[in-house]
What we know:
By secondary structure, this protein is of the alpha+beta class. It has six helices and 24 strands. It has three domains: 2-121, DNA Polymerase III, subunit A, domain 2 (DNA Polymerase III, Chain A, domain 2, Roll), CATH 3.10.150; 133-252, DNA Polymerase III, Chain A, domain 2, CATH 3.10.150; 255-373, Proliferating Cell Nuclear Antigen (Box), CATH 3.70.10. Strands 6-2-3-4-15-14-13-10 form an eight-stranded antiparallel beta sheet. A seven-stranded antiparallel beta sheet has the order 11-12-24-23-22-16-20. Strands 5-1-7-8-9 form a five-stranded antiparallel beta sheet. The longest helix has 15 residues, at 267-281. The chain is elongated and about 80 Å long.
Amino acid sequence: xxxxxxxxxxxxxxxxxxxxxxxxxxxxxxxxxxxxxxxxxxxxxxxxxxxxxxxxxxxxxxxxxxxxxxxxxxxxxxxxxxxxxxxxxxxxxxxxxxxxxxxxxxxxxxxxxxxxxxxxxxxxxxxxxxxxxxxxxxxxxxxxxxxxxxxxxxxxxxxxxxxxxxxxxxxxxxxxxxxxxxxxxxxxxxxxxxxxxxxxxxxxxxxxxxxxxxxxxxxxxxxxxxxxxxxxxxxxxxxxxxxxxxxxxxxxxxxxxxxxxxxxxxxxxxxxxxxxxxxxxxxxxxxxxxxxxxxxxxxxxxxxxxxxxxxxxxxxxxxxxxxxxxxxxxxxxxxxxxxxxxxxxxxxxxxxxxxxxxxxxxxxxxxxxxxxxxxxxxx
Length: 379
């Protein structure tokens, strides 16, 4: 196996594949990156127990300037290989692998030799037996992921809650995540209706890595779903993720259908006020912020009290306040995550009772995107 390639372009491909490789891999072979050189291009593969990423550097890619002298395959230790490639002195690098899977990496005056592994021992990528393909613009898919993944649980005590629930029926996609303290739900109309109904749970960690890979990509991403795998195709890159087994809780019943108090605010302004209040709340044992709403006097006040440090009180600016007077306490970190997901928009907060979950929705497109937060009981 022998080839040369433009190093900067190669690093971009390498970084994508590296996302799937764990430093604590159960199998030694999975701590490596697989290189498969054919006459048409170079395929890079990385995998762990949850995700697998495969990307192809085509000989037609002018930026990569891939020059193939001899085809072949090898698995190289990902951590060393990645660091070596990034620190090579010249723009062009070459790799030559002998029959004992030793790889010689050259660039300018630098030369490294590292021991590789037999590619025949590398696990095969999952086979997706999908009945149909779905497509979504990359920027829309990234937005859906970022708006929902924040509410997924990080605790393995209930593994099903560490995923994002995707339900696809007809021309609508529903994405939901909850850790039982908060919930995020996004509805999306698909350009073309799906002939098959899907009800799947994708690990939130996988979706997080996918969102990072998408970057600013607005091109359509192809999605294929099988019984226990989902595949996202981004140009020359294929992103596989396992699916979580089990039934996701019925979250629709958690969302209140009516409210007794409603507050409309500017999301960035309210976020900054919450950030100020949480400066002190983080020093307390409970990390709680209280919101007092007085519709009669058209007043909204934010409180935070930490006996160890002090307290803060701030009169809020808002667009509209309607309904009953209310005092409610909540975790400010949940509120900050929720508000960030709305960007620069105006947000409506709907409340029912002091100890009942409340919702946040964008004022212009209510129903498409909902954040729900469970209040904190205070003495």
